[in-house]
Amino acid sequence: MLIPVIIAVTFVLFVILSFAPGDVVKTILGDEATEEQIAELKHELNLDQPLLIRYARYMMDACRLDFGNSWTSGYEILPEFSRRLPYTLLVTTLSVLFAVGVGIPLGIASAIKEHSILDYGCTFLVMLLASMPAFWLGTLCQILFCLTLRWLPVSGVGSWRHFILPSIILGASTLATMIRMSRTSMLDVIKMDYIRTARAKGADEKKVLYHHAIRNSLIPVITQIGISFAGGIGGAIVTENIFAIPGIGVMLVNAVKSRDVPVVMGVIIFVTIIVGIINLIVDLICAVVDPRIDFAS
Amino acid sequence: MKKLLVLALLVAMLVPVFAGGANEATSTSKADKSKVVFTVAGNPYRFFHLTSAGCGGDDNIVLANVYDNLLCLENDGSLSNALAESYEVSADGTVYTFHLRKGVKFTNGEEMTAEDVKFSLDKGSKGPLGGPLLINYKECRIIDPYTVEIELSAPYAAFPYCVASRVGGIACKSYWEQVGDEGYQNAPIGTGPYKLVAYAANDYITLEANEDHWRGAPAIKTVQIELVADPNTMILGLQNGDYDVMGNPSIEMVTRFEKDPNINTDVASSTGRITLYLNARNGITTDINFRKAVQAAIDKEEVNIAVNNGAAVLIDVDLCPMYTGHPTSGLHIVEKNVEKAKEYLAASNYNNEEFGILVQAGTNNETAAKVIQAQLMAIGINCKVDAVDNTTLRSRDSSRDFDAYLCDNLSSIPDADAIAGFFKPTRFVESVSYPRAPEIYALSQKGCSAQGDDRLPYYTEICNIITDEAYMVPLYNGITTIAYNANLDGVGAHCLNYYLFRYWNWK
């Protein structure tokens, strides 16, 4: 399914970028460019060709891993993407680890202690995190932890300390989702007949929870982790800009602002592939956790 | 016991996270007095200005420090001698003779001579910036290894500014012969105070001092330029000590920084004019009474307060006061007069049609346009602000697809001839150009052919035609700003957003 998805995504994007108002060539060359210079550059960039031919040429080049050069900054896209990707993956991975590490235990605990102070506290936290936009929360945290307390740097990637705030901010909304998902899933499971049966048979409560309930409640949560990871790569666009992390989010934002079509197309193709791979990994993990899933059949 | 152990482990893991106080960037920039971390928005990437790709305003951040010109444009818009020790101009204004400084070395060790000057100017004149920046350039003749004569096809009084512009940086001819355009772009060689040592697109640039610079070794040995898109990040980073200097903070931030003892700021007039250009060829703006109504309805001071906290200098003509050739007397000036504006509107053919102000979205100009919108609505004009992205803006500007267009016209050549830009026959096709453009252009040709005060009558007449025809409503002189660590000296805002690192030093 990945290849049709890539073709569909890139084609829609290519059409949208082609029909966007304005002339990128005039932006590149400036006000004083002559008609000859404009025509020459349009020819050089294939912009004098019909849309379908341009798209076909682009995709054929992309198949040979030739994603071209940035129109506005001149750099080669593939090496630049490779340089930036580790930063995005690092921040996204750390954010998901943070969300999973904190969110799942909290969600399960609040399900086990339903209607307790802990449960209400978690619900409040979920509402709070889900309703605070990343750019706002990020700036507030920069003011508190960087300017006021002087614990952390504001921006950049110079040391491991630079990644703490971005990961927490990027993981904040995922954390809310994790708490909610794991709580709901756990509540569903502990009300199942087989849990009641296990208790009726006198099984130890810890064994009932850890052995029977948690494992089964994690299946929808694992699927959500995959979705959150993919969403995190998208969310990194905001976080990377706030914390000046030189990842693919910054690369994409700059390219969109300047209508740098090859960069936008290249980044979207790579991100689509990464998201596809993540979904595959999630499916495989689900199969391990849930014996009812059988790929062979 | 087990719980206590887990708690202790958690604390042990968290302590290093929060320990250490200030971050590395803070300690580096303040302890290391040879380095400055400078943050700025923008995307400099063309480090050889003489290629067919030319170069843009952002590239000046690097070009102005890696290359030297014959003359240098200083912060306040004045010219100082750089690679040229002196120059003279012929009586007819067509030949400039530059006497070059001896013993100046490129960063590859080769001596800069007249050959390099001729190579750079000849190549620059043929590139995309040759027409707009090396105006009337005909040829460069080598008189001796340290003297060149530049002949112009017609006199151009502002030519010294041309050689001080970004296309006038002197490159090494022999090095270019070895590496070509691409090699030069990847590893630029100049005679400037700094060398480019590292670059990552939209990320960072590292410059290192040229210890053999003819002016003497710069005090700051390393300038780390961090290209940051989010202004909030730059502001917080400057306050936190991650950055030492921030380019172009908003005027609100400058006002706020003034209360911070650790941060100094500087505000200077730029070479840009913020002006509302009316179409005059299409739609309701073909009606002079309507244009005059707009002209009389605008309160420039109100716009200035809303956008710049009143910090900018208001202008009556589409020229900055610092420009050479700026008229000093005899100008027709239109003051705000709401009653008069209403009279003009009543006398016009205006029938409540929509009047749009084209402007780049998200800029100060959008704020200015919204203030003007309110002022025009107050006299009964159905005004809307048409805020678009930069690419759309440039496209619509070149085809003059607007009723009114509000923009910042930053001029690389701070001379009165800048006013002729909108009236050049090459700029717009006749069908969309201003009706009196040929007349204005002819006057500007006379203005740039004359020298000294003899130029003033021509530019006065141009300004008066523009005012009388209400082709445009000049608002205010643009401003440039800079904020920096209070322990730094020599940092100043430059009229053309150059950053001359050679002046910077730690106290």
Give descriptors for this structure.
heterodimer, A: 297 residues, mainly alpha, MetI-like fold, 2 domains, B: 507 residues, alpha+beta, 4-stranded antiparallel beta sheet, 18 strands
Commentary on this structure:
- Helix content of chain A is 76%, strand content 0%.
- With 297 residues, chain A is mainly alpha-helical.
- Chain A has 2 domains: 2-63, no CATH class; 84-258 and 282-289, MetI-like (MetI-like fold), CATH 1.10.3720.
- The longest helix of chain A has 38 residues, at 205-242.
- Chain B has helices at residues 2-18, 24-31, 60-66, 114-126, 130-133, 159-164, 173-186, 231-240, 251-257, 288-297, 300-308, 338-347, 364-378, 390-398, 437-449, 456-469, and strands at residues 35-40, 71-73, 79-81, 84-89, 95-100, 137-144, 147-152, 194-200, 204-209, 222-227, 245-247, 263-278, 355-360, 383-388, 404-410, 472-485, 488-489, 505-506.
- In chain B, the strands form 4 sheets. A 10-stranded mixed sheet of chain B has the order 8-9-10-1-11-16-12-15-13-14, sandwiched between helices. Chain B has a 4-stranded antiparallel sheet with strand order 4-5-7-6, with helices on one face. A two-stranded antiparallel ribbon of chain B has the order 2-3.
- In chain B, strand 4 and strand 5 (95-100) form a beta hairpin.
- The longest helix of chain B has 17 residues, at 2-18.
- Mean pLDDT of chain B is 90; it is low at 12-29.
